[in-house]
Amino acid sequence: MDTYPHPKGALKSGPGVASAGRIYDYFLNGRHHTPADEEAARKLQEKVPELHYMAQANRIFLQRAAAVMARAGVDQFIDLGSGIPTAWNTHEVVQVVHPEAHVVYVDNDPVVLDMSRDMLRRGGEKNVVYVDADIADPDSVLADPEVRRLIDFSRPVGYLHVAIWHFVDPERDPWSLLRRYLDAVPSGSYLALSHVTADGQRADKIERFNEVYRNVTARLNFRTFEEIDRFFDGWEYLPPHEDAPPGLSYVDVWGSKNPAEADPSHTWIPAGVARKP
To answer: What is the spatial distance between Cα 203 and Cα 47, in angstroms, rounded to a whole number?
Structure first.
């Protein structure tokens, strides 16, 4: 659950304003958040106690999906709305398979960017960059010089669109925006996407969730399972786990060795991985 444009277009960020990306860091037991982020996170967890579990499950989904793409031969990745790098981040996962893998992280929270670039610089990462860009402006992201330097768009690309599009309002047509990313990559590319849903949740709990996020960097847009499925139109789903048919699942089910033990009612987050035919 990362950071995106404020609904009115201006970036609402800084150490005195809670940031969705830094709240996510808090729920991942990270150290790169401010008192304002911690206060907002605590309020969120009071209203939606399963939120810590949701964040952890969402993170594990990203790691599992990135690993599957890397094992399928993909060695270049774009992680949109990536937030602050924490332990076992995208580049660490995929470089286990491809030590020279290229990874571009994209975010537009200045605090997240400063922290992340400093961490990558101290880590000596030469094939990993952080790009300051709005994920809802695909043309600027795809044309960014650092993106063009590290990503060869004539070869398959792995996209990580994890818990980002629910921060983009329906008036901006997130399906069309996503399609511009997908159209830029060749056959054999992969998309991993997760998105919060209100399906199966109580109205009062949804309202409590929204209440806290009104004071964060961007409001949440809950979408139905069917609306989330539309993001994958034209691409071929991978099975979410062994013996399952290809399709959309949930973050704590996808890639699990024990899917029967997962409880999607605690996650609110459908997820899937698909390949471009």
So the answer is: 13
Closest by CA to 177, choosing from 185, 168, 188, 186, is: 168
d(CA 190, CA 158): 5
- Pairwise pLDDT comparison (168 vs 260), residue with the higher score: 168
What does the alpha-carbon distance between residue 48 and residue 259 come to, in Å, rounded to a whole number?
23
Burial class, 261, CB count within 10 angstroms (exposed 0-12 / middle 13-18 / buried 19+) = exposed
Residue length of the chain: 277
d(CA 32, CA 26): 8
- Record the pTM: 0.86
pLDDT confidence tier of residue 210, bands split at 50, 70 and 90? confident
The two structure tokens encoding residue 160: 């990580």
Secondary structure, 3-state, 162-229: ECCHHHCCHHHCHHHHHHHHHHCCCCCCEEEEECCCCCCCCHHHHHHHHHHHCCCCCCCCCCCHHHHH
What's the DSSP call for residue 264?
G
Closest among 165, 169, 89, 176 to 139, alpha carbons compared: 176
Q: Which of 111, 103, 101, 161 has its CA nearest to residue 136? A: 161
CA distance 276 to 69: 12
Question: Who's near 195: CB < 8 A, 6+ residues apart?
Answer: 163, 165, 166, 223, 228, 231, 269, 270, 271
